[in-house]
Specification:
This protein has helices spanning 44-55, 57-62, 78-85, 98-103, 144-152, and strands at residues 14-17, 22-24, 32-37, 65-71, 90-93, 106-111, 114-119, 123-126, 132-136. It is α+β, with helices and mostly antiparallel strands. The chain has a single domain (14-152), classed as Glutaredoxin, CATH 3.40.30.10. Strands 2-1-5-4-3-8-9 form a 7-stranded mixed beta sheet. Strand 1 (14-17) and strand 2 (22-24) form a beta hairpin. The radius of gyration is 14 Å and the shape is globular. It starts with 13 loop residues before the first strand and ends with a helix.
Length: 154
C-alpha cells in the first residue's frame, strides 16, 4: 500500500453519490475538499466519525471545505446511512475500490486474527488546484473532525 502524500496531485475520479449523481474531482476545482475514506456504513466507528463530521459541518462550510465520505458500500446503502444519522454531506460509492487504490488506502488489514484487504481510515485535504494539501492518518474516529479543524485553523 503506497499512500499518497502532501504535494501529490489528487487522482481525478468520478464516483456516484447517495443520489446516484456523478461527482468528479475535476468539477470541484476552486474548492477545498476533505475526502475521508471509511470501511463500511452503519458500523460503530464509521458512525461516530460521520456524526462528528455532521456536527461540525458548519465549521467546514465556514472554511470553504466540502466533505465527502468514500467507502466500498454500494450506492443503495448510502441513503440509508445518511437518513439514519441525518448526515449533511455527501457519501460516495467506490464499490470496486479503484479510487481507494489510487489514493493508496486499500490494503491488507488484520482484525481478530483474520487478514483481509480493505480500506484504511485515512483522510485527504485537497486544495483548490487538486493537490493533496494534507494527509490525516493518525486520529481516533471520535477526534477526526477536530484533528482536521485544528489543521485548518493553523
Amino acid at each position: 500500500m503506497q499512500t499518497l502524500t502532501a504535494g501529490n496531485p489528487a487522482p481525478n475520479f468520478s464516483l456516484l453519490n447517495e443520489n446516484g449523481n456523478l461527482i468528479t474531482l475535476s468539477d470541484l476545482k476552486g474548492k477545498k475538499v476533505l475526502m475521508y475514506f471509511y470501511p463500511k456504513a452503519m458500523t460503530p466507528g464509521c458512525t461516530v466519525q460521520a456524526q462528528c463530521l455532521r456536527d461540525s459541518q458548519s465549521e467546514f462550510t465556514d472554511r470553504n471545505v466540502l466533505v465527502f465520505g468514500v467507502s466500498p458500500d454500494p450506492v443503495k446503502r448510502l441513503p440509508k446511512f445518511i437518513e439514519k444519522e441525518a448526515l449533511n454531506f455527501s457519501l460516495l460509492s467506490d464499490e470496486d475500490h479503484a479510487v481507494a487504490e489510487a489514493f493508496g488506502v486499500w490494503g491488507e488489514k488484520k482484525f481478530m486474527g483474520k487478514v483481509y484487504d480493505g480500506i484504511h481510515r485515512i483522510s485527504f485535504l485537497i486544495d483548490e488546484n487538486g493537490t493533496i494539501e494534507h494527509v490525516f492518518d493518525k486520529f481516533k474516529t471520535k477526534d477526526h473532525h477536530q484533528v482536521v479543524l485544528d489543521y485548518l485553523n493553523q
